[in-house]
Amino acid sequence: LRSTATAGLLERNPRLGLSVFTSTHPKGERQWRDLPAERDPLAHPSLPMKVVDLLKSVSPAVPYDGPGGRRKASGRSEAGGSSTAQQQPEGSAPLPLESGRALAVAYLESAVGISTGRPVDDEAFDALPPDEHFEERAADLHDELAYLLLEGVIAERGDDDGDDTELGAAYRSKLRRLLRWPCAKVRSERLLSALPS
Questions:
Q1: Average of pLDDT values for 55-63?
Q2: pLDDT (tens digit per residue) in 122-151
Q3: Is 160 exposed, middle or buried (0-12, 13-18, 19+ CB in 10 A)?
């Protein structure tokens, strides 16, 4: 985490740099169910928040949005990209990795399991190692994801009319998805206190 090479990779190739932290996360319900509890991305007492702090501090020099092409700051694809947002469930389309906030959101969505298929049942987090502080740590990570999404909504408001930009709408959609997710551990009282008046 402290390596300048890590930060450099995240800045030059955000998608590849992010994969350093997410490649071990389960992908799909079956992998989540087969995962030994001690290997759950949330099981470590401090690593997930340290990764989030690192990702938030990065400013990608070359935002990359995957196979469709590079993105400009406006959020429009430069080459060959076709919008798949209409084909995917609300809030599931990836954000363009143009900021540390977007990197941290992508990491947290993977770690908590909302984007990687953590089973949506009552025991989703029960298989983790017994730890009296786990519930609070998990809720802290869910809260952090909600705060980052809310920041994105606020930061991406239109100038005069207050409508969301395309990116702002993506953040809003992801926030709605998180708040509706049955496994969410967001503490609503904290999120409400963070809302601007």
A1: 87
A2: 565 665 556 667 888 889 999 999 999 999
A3: exposed
**Residue 45 vs residues 49, 115, 138, 145: alpha-carbon distances, Å:** 9, 22, 10, 17
In sequence order, what DSSP letters do the residues of 109-149 get, joined into one string? HHHHTTTTT---STTTTTTSPP-TTHHHHHHHHHHHHHHHH
Separation CA 100–CA 54 (nearest Å): 8
The pLDDT-based confidence of 31 (bands split at 50, 70, 90) is very high
Task: Indicate the SS3 state at residue 56.
Answer: helix
**CA-CA distances (angstroms) from residue 59 to 12, 53, 164, 192?**
9, 13, 22, 28
Contact 27, 116 (CB under 8 A): yes
CA dihedral 133, 100, 55, 19 (to 10 degrees): 110
CB distance 139 to 185 below 8 Å = yes
pTM confidence score: 0.84
DSSP 71: B
Calpha distance 23→29 (Å, rounded): 16
Number of H-type helices and E-type strands within the chain: 8, 0
Under a CB-based contact definition with an 8 Å cutoff, are residues 35 and 26 in contact?
yes
